[in-house]
Amino acid sequence: MADALVGAGGVVEYPYGYSRPTITCAPLHVCSVALQDGEAATSVSIGDTVRWLLQTATAGAKPVMMIKPTQAGLSTNLVVTTDKGRIYYMHLVSSKTEYVPMVSWYDPAAMTRDLSAEAQTSARQKAEFEATMVATKIAAEQAKAQRVVADKSVGKLDPTTLDFGYTCTGEAAFKPARVFANDTHTFIQLPPGASASDAPAVFNVSNNETELLNSRLVNGYYIIDGKPAKLSLVLGVGASAQTVKCQKSVPNSLFSWGTK
Q1: Which of 5, 34, 49, 200 would you label with 153, given CA atoms 20 to 30 Å apart?
Q2: Per-block average pLDDT, block size 10, for the chain (260 residues)?
Q3: Neighbours of 52 (CB within 10 A)
Q4: Distance between CA atoms of residues 181 and 223, nearest Å
Q5: How far is the C-alpha of 210 from the C-alpha of 207, rounded, in Å?
Q6: What would the DSSP string read from start to end of 141-184?
Q7: Residue 157 contacts by C-beta under 8 Å, 6 or more apart in sequence?
Q8: Is residue 101 classed exposed, middle or buried when 0-12, 13-18 and 19+ CB atoms within 10 A define those classes?
Q9: Is the pTM of this model over 0.90?
Q10: Which family does it belong to (predicted)?
Q11: For residues 121 and 113, what is the distance between their CA atoms, to the nearest angstrom?
Q12: What is the C-alpha to C-alpha distance for residues 109 and 126, in angstroms, rounded to an integer?
């Protein structure tokens, strides 16, 4: 059961669809009755048109009825229909000693829908945050497990085949000193002094989607199978996460530096 509320400025707010309120007005004073935002009154009918004065107005997007009795001890009713399919029924009385100057309406069903939608949004955001934390934690654990002191799968590197055409953006202690690749692997050189215990997880970025890459740490270098065009290095979770993004630009050989 919804109850009447006292809103800002002393406005008495009645729940639509839950009551037929009695509104007390005073002679020589105006009572204002405001409907809900975004609707328009299609008809306004008052029972006693002789001893009650009625005028319609608007306040922003709200229809407002201005009601004034000519004497005390009167009783009648007011019915208002709107373009939203609502019918407002009110009982009007006049008194010299009692007076409710401002009345409005609220929709409990709409409030329930808004609260439900807000709760669903909050639950979805919480689930997404928890999923991100789990994924980042798994990525960090996998990155730590893949740190080794040697890697025999890469084979002997030919400096003439290395492509240094990568650029990295972002401010973090682990921002790579350089990124380069050959035909089969990508190499990310961590900056001097970077802590191995705080090494970031490495993701492939493609079509606005991220995929955790298998990587191994060898003597200060991350070694990744393949040659992704975009990489994202992430350390931490949530608002405290640090991110550096590296992107393939143009082919650039070690021996082409400084040439035109």
Answers
A1: 200
A2: 62 86 93 92 95 93 93 96 93 93 85 63 74 73 49 64 89 89 89 73 88 83 88 87 88 49
A3: 20
A4: 9
A5: 8
A6: HHHHHTB-S--SSS----GGG-B--EEEE---TT--SEEEE-SS
A7: 182
A8: middle
A9: no
A10: Belongs to the TrbG/VirB9 family.
A11: 12
A12: 26
Of the options 2.60.40.420, 2.60.40.2500, 3.40.50.300, 2.60.40.2470, the CATH number for the domain spanning 166-248: 2.60.40.2500
Residue 246 token pair = 């590296």
Residues 6+ apart with CB under 8 A from 215: 143, 146, 188, 202, 222, 223, 224
Q: Which two tokens stand for residue 24?
A: 């007390």
Strand order in the sheet with 5-6: 5-6, 12-15, 102-106, 31-34, 62-69, 52-59
Residue 248 phi, psi (nearest 5): -75, 130
Q: What's the N-to-C CA distance of the chain in angstroms?
A: 80
* Dist. CA 56–CA 38, nearest whole Å: 16
Local structure of residue 240 (DSSP, 8 states):
G
Determine the longest span between alpha carbons in the chain, in angstroms: 104
Give me the residues paired with residue 14 across strands: 105
Q: Cα 159–164–166 angle (5° rounding)?
A: 160
Pick the CATH number of 5-106 from 3.40.50, 1.20.140, 2.60.40, 2.50.20: 2.60.40
Which phi and psi angles does 106 have, rounded to 5°? -135, 160
